[in-house]
Amino acid sequence: DAGITQSPRHKVTETGTPVTLRCHQTENHRYMYWYRQDPGHGLRLIHYSYGVKDTDKGEVSDGYSVSRSKTEDFLLTLESATSSQTSVYFCAISEAGERRQETQYFGPGTRLLVL
Amino acid sequence: DQQVKQNSPSLSVQEGRISILNCDYTNSMFDYFLWYKKYPAEGPTFLISISSIKDKNEDGRFTVFLNKSAKHLSLHIVPSQPGDSAVYFCAASLGTGNQFYFGTGTSLTVIP
Questions:
Q1: CA–CA separation, B66 vs B76, rounded Å?
Q2: What is the pLDDT along chain A (115 residues), one digit of tens a residue?
Q3: Are the Cβ atoms of A104 and B100 closer than 8 angstroms?
Q4: Which of A84, B4, B35, B77 could form a disulfide with B47 if both were Cys (CB 3.0 to 4.6 A apart)?
Q5: Nearest-CA distance from B98 to chain A in Å?
Q6: Contacts of B95 in chain A (CB under 8 A)
Q7: Which 8-state DSSP code applies to residue A11?
Q8: DSSP assignment of B29-56, as one string?
Q9: Contacts of residue B100 in chain A, CB cutoff 8 Å?
Q10: Inter-chain residue contact A94 with B98, CB threshold 8 Å
């Protein structure tokens, strides 16, 4: 299994509070991703990173920001949490080489409840 | 707008029989397709993939078929086992930036 951990694994917070989720990898992979999983929507990309300090938006980036100051860590921040951000959040990593087509490996997920 | 669709939310199959999971996509520029399997309270795990230059890829009990003209791919599991019971997601990639687009998932139940 790829060395990916997420913290916290579960969090309950109140509307309007800031929340930061952490993804840590030990694989030294270049690419890191944040997804959210919701019923009826599958997995949707929030933000991704293609290197230290290099990030870009996914299809559902509103209300989220990310930072990557080290290869191994990718942080997802909800500046002011809303109930619509209640979800399960997954981090993923991949190493896109010359072939570009590389598999993404997922972390165990963080279950976030915003009250 | 969902670019990758799995129209069957659930599927039940008897142990030993074939399971066929289907996936449709709308973007003809997708060039790489994957299937992931997900157990409750765990992250998705990679199962099998196929490049758009192929129409079939096989790995043990799992075979993925790609029909580019119909923009359709399917996953065949033969024979199905109770441990295969999980949610299966198909995903597609444009290659650039390695962004994946996922379907909504199909929950497979293999009945012993």
A1: 11
A2: 569 999 999 999 999 999 999 999 999 988 899 999 998 888 999 999 988 999 999 989 999 999 999 999 999 999 999 999 999 999 999 876 545 556 888 999 999 999 9
A3: yes
A4: B35
A5: 7
A6: 100-101
A7: E
A8: T--EEEEEEE-TTS--EEEEEEETT-SE
A9: 33, 43, 45, 104
A10: yes
Question: Does the CB of B42 have a partner CB in chain A at under 8 Å?
Answer: yes
Which residue from A minimizes the CA distance to B44?
Answer: A106
Of the partner residues A40, A92, A103, the one whose CB lies closest to the CB of residue B104: A40
Q: Do A43 and B89 touch (CB under 8 A)?
A: yes
**CA–CA separation, A96 and A39 (whole Å):** 29
Residues of B in contact with A21 (CB under 8 A): none
At residue A51, the 3 state secondary structure works out as strand
* Cα B81 to Cα B93: distance, rounded to the nearest angstrom: 29
Tokens of B86: 């999980």
pLDDT string in tens for chain B (112-residue length): 789 999 999 999 999 999 999 999 999 999 899 999 999 989 999 999 999 999 999 999 999 999 999 999 999 999 999 999 999 999 998 865 567 899 999 999 999 9
Distance CA B62, CA B73 (A): 13
